Amino acid sequence: MPPIARSTSPWSRPSVWLLVAANLVPVYGVLVLGWAVFPLVLLFWIENVIVGAFNILRMLCARPAKGEAAATKLFLIPFFTVHYGMFTFVHGVFVFVLFAGDGPGGFGGPSDLTVGAWDAVTGSHLGWPLLALVGSHLFSFISNYLLGGEFRRTSLQQLMLRPYGRIVVLHVAILIGGIFVHALGSPIWALFLLIGLKLAFDVRAHMRTHAKEGGAPEAGEA
Predict the structure, then answer these.
(1) What is the predicted pLDDT for the residue at 221?
(2) How far apart are CA 35 and CA 191, in angstroms?
(3) Which candidate, 113, 58, 56, places its Cα nearest to that of 83?
(4) Dihedral of CA 181/186/189/191: which sign?
(5) 93: Cβ contacts below 8 Å, ≥ 6 apart
(6) Contact of 175 with 98, CB cutoff 8 Å
(7) pTM of the predicted model, to two decimals?
């Protein structure tokens, strides 16, 4: 009997479907909780913090390749933490200034932004959507990175740069789209378009990332 062929389709990954489910949770917030633009954009921004935390965990678990001494982690991980933290802080201030009406002078540092974000999370009932996003990233970390062996094939330099492509491309689009939706008065159809934009980008980025790190060719590659 010939061996059963294993599907190489990116859609065969459970992590992709869990990512889709986690990104659709905000639909409930829009339909039932009456979310406008700010809770959505805030949720997407907080996910950047989650992404950064898991990236630090990936760097800690990475097995250095030849020429990459384990001591490299002692420099790259703190450097990434500080640099990514500053980048995320500035991005968060923009989110509050543009969509919550808070002036930039209201944020003296990360602690002020943290308090403001926590108040907004509790006030807009963002707890369950955030747990869904954490669960999605945790599942991908375990199934793809650890059990899938990506930690053996990914360099520390690749990991250090990886989150920035997601932030720069996705969140420029999210901020521009959010401003447009806010100007329209946050109609439901426009909020759904914003959720759809985020979902489409996340799924595509997820497939591309794990096609590279998993050693499989991406769609369109030889």
Answers:
(1) 31
(2) 9
(3) 56
(4) positive
(5) 104, 107, 113
(6) yes
(7) 0.80
How far is Cα of residue 143 from the mean position of the Cα atoms in its chain?
A: 17
Q: Which of 122, 158, 157 is nearest to 39 (CA)?
A: 122
State the pLDDT at residue 105. Answer: 53
Q: What is the chain's length?
A: 222
Tokens standing for 23? 């990104």
DSSP, collapsed to helix, strand or coil, labels residue 115 as helix
* Strands, E assignment, the chain: none
End-to-end CA distance of the chain: give it in Å, rounded.
29
The number of angstroms, rounded, from the C-alpha of 213 to the middle of its chain's C-alpha atoms is 17
Instruction: Please check whether residue 108 is in contact with residue 25, taking contact to mean a CB–CB distance below 8 angstroms.
Output: no
Mean pLDDT by 10 residues, the chain (222 residues): 47 76 85 86 91 93 68 87 91 85 61 84 89 91 88 85 81 80 80 84 76 44 31
C-beta separation of 10 from 207 below 8 A: yes
Q: Which two tokens stand for residue 2?
A: 């010939």
- CB 58 within 8 Å of CB 141: yes
